[in-house]
Structures are given as C-alpha cells and as structure tokens.
Amino acid sequence: MSDVIATIEGRIGCITLNRPKALNALSLGMVRQITQALLDWQQHEQVLAVVVRGTNKEGPFGAFCAGGDIRFFHQAATSGNPQLEDFFTEEYRLNHLIHTYPKPYIALMDGIVMGGGMGISQGASVRVVTERSKMAMPETHIGLFPDVGGGYFLSRCAGRLGEYLGLTGHMLQGEDAVHAGLADGLVASGKLAHLWQTLIETPFENGEAVERWVRTRFDHLQKTGLPHRAEMDAAFAMPHVNDIVQQLESASDEWSQDTAKTLRQRSPLMLHVVLEQIRRARTMSLADDLRMERDLVRHCFSLRPVVDSETVEGIRALAVDKDHSPQWKPARVEEVDAAEVAAFFVSPWPAHAHPLRELT
C-alpha cells in the first residue's frame, strides 16, 4: 500500500497519509505524491475541494503527520546523499502550493501535527483540530529551526506567541491551537469519519459551499484563551535570546522557571537563529520566507562540517543513539557568536540560481 493514498471521491480530492508506523512522517516520495495529486486536481473540473488526513495503526485519523523523516536527514547528511537537498526544496515548494492553492484545502489535524505536518496544514483554507491534536514546531530540540513556512505562520500569531512557540517547541492541544490562531475550529475526533463520508457523498455546488459546510461542524470551545499570555509577551519581546532567558530565570513564577529550563535544553545557537528568523519573517511574503528558510536549512547541514552540525547532533541524540544528551556547540546561549548567527542569513545562492527562485 502506498504511503500516500490520493483519490477523487464525489467532488472531493482525498489525500490520506498512510505511513502509520512512522506517524506519517514525510519522505521525499510522499512529498512528490502529494504535490502531484494537487497539481493534477488544480484544473480538474470534478474536484471542488481537497481534504487531507492521516492514519494511525488502527485506521484513518488518530495521527496526522509527525514531520519530516529525521532519520533520513541524519543518514543523508552523514553519507552526503544529494536527496537531502531535494527533500527540502520540494517540501517547501509543496508548502507554497498549499498556501496558494486555488481550491479549498481542508486539513483534518487529528493527533500529532508537528514540523512538516504543520507545513502541509497551515496553508489550508480550513484547519480542523480535535481534542487529540498535539501541535508543535519542536525543531530547536533537534538543532533545527521551525521551517516549512514556520517563520511566516508563527510570526503572524498574536503578540510574541510565535517567538515563544518557535523557541520552546511548546505543544498545543486542540483548543489551544484555535486560540493561538493556528487552527480554525475544533471537531470532536469521533465525528471525523462521518464528516469525511459526508464530504464525499454530498453534491456540493462549489468549493465555497464545501468550506462553509465544514465550518458549520465546529464544536463550541470550552476555554476562552491561552494561559500566561502576559508573561509570554513580556519575556519574548526582549531584543535578544540572552535577555529572554535572563528575564525568565529572574522571575519567581513556575511558568517562567519551567520555560527557562526548556530553553536551556535547546540548541543555544539555533535559539538565536530562530529568534532572528521569526522577526525577519514578520515583514516577509511567504515566498521570501521560504527562500530564507531554504538558505537556513542548507546552513544547518553545511555551514559547519557535518560532525559539528547542531542538526546532525540533535537528531543523533533524539532518534539515532537516543541518549537524549545532545552536545551543543556552544553549550550556553551566552556563548553564541553573533557572527555565526549572521552567517545563517547569507544565502549560499545568487538570486537567479536559488532553488526556490520561481516562487511568488
């Protein structure tokens, strides 16, 4: 069975991520399959809208997408496999295609939605979460940065929420994702199978009718907002990572102390890079942000020798050796060299040769 099942059912283009043992982590092949389906359906008269879901080991739903295949990243980086470059170029093109897709694209984000899973859902015209959704951009945990357009969509969260989510990798539950502006509505997971079936059986007149109907299915939210917003905005508005950490560590409340401990576990270098990424992205178009992120990801794997790459080390500690003890270089945010951070934002390509030069 294919890792991506793409079929036309009724008036709907249906995409099911079908790699449950890997929590539907995206491979290069999966990126290509999703891209091809979307391109095929762009002008297809029968397809009024697209809906995407994941599967878990029991069947449809339960897990959306845990991100990119980080074990592949590690293996490809250490062996010099050129498909590593292809993966990010083609994944970011897919992210752009979803954000700019001419038909409604509905993402049913049940279960885990991280990294690359956010990349194929944040550009959706309707982003649906459930009470089981676990949403995060946890890349600083592996010495990476929130890519797949993360700079673009995190920077557009209210206040300093984007900086907080990007630096800490904090996981949002379903309702919190709606309050964060990273989902449009909540639907109880038990209703998803019926929603899917109704979508493919209903003779909708047009794409707007599909979108409108999905929005009428949203459940009432129980909470009124996210906690600790005032403390978050105050700390993550500070000009530098060192200032953020210092402010959190000098505060006496439990949330500030816990947040400071989290930041101390992340890659110090990448915390500085991510803060700069999100703040630059605030004034960028999606296309420019994706070009910047393509530069950043090249630097993550090649600005230093592979053995000294924060990303290679972070993935090793989490997913290869699983010792959960990454040896970050440098070890503390106070020791990060500003010149090394600045180097991440120098494109390795001239504009006319950039792999994403065609994005607008």
UniProtKB/TrEMBL annotation:
<keyword id="KW-0378">Hydrolase</keyword>
<dbReference type="InterPro" id="IPR032259">
    <property type="entry name" value="HIBYL-CoA-H"/>
</dbReference>
<dbReference type="GO" id="GO:0003860">
    <property type="term" value="F:3-hydroxyisobutyryl-CoA hydrolase activity"/>
</dbReference>
<dbReference type="InterPro" id="IPR029045">
    <property type="entry name" value="ClpP/crotonase-like_dom_sf"/>
</dbReference>
<dbReference type="InterPro" id="IPR045004">
    <property type="entry name" value="ECH_dom"/>
</dbReference>
<feature type="domain" description="Enoyl-CoA hydratase/isomerase">
    <location>
        <begin position="12"/>
        <end position="345"/>
    </location>
</feature>
<protein>
    <submittedName>
        <fullName>3-hydroxyisobutyryl-CoA hydrolase</fullName>
    </submittedName>
</protein>
<dbReference type="GO" id="GO:0006574">
    <property type="term" value="P:L-valine catabolic process"/>
</dbReference>
<dbReference type="Pfam" id="PF16113">
    <property type="entry name" value="ECH_2"/>
</dbReference>
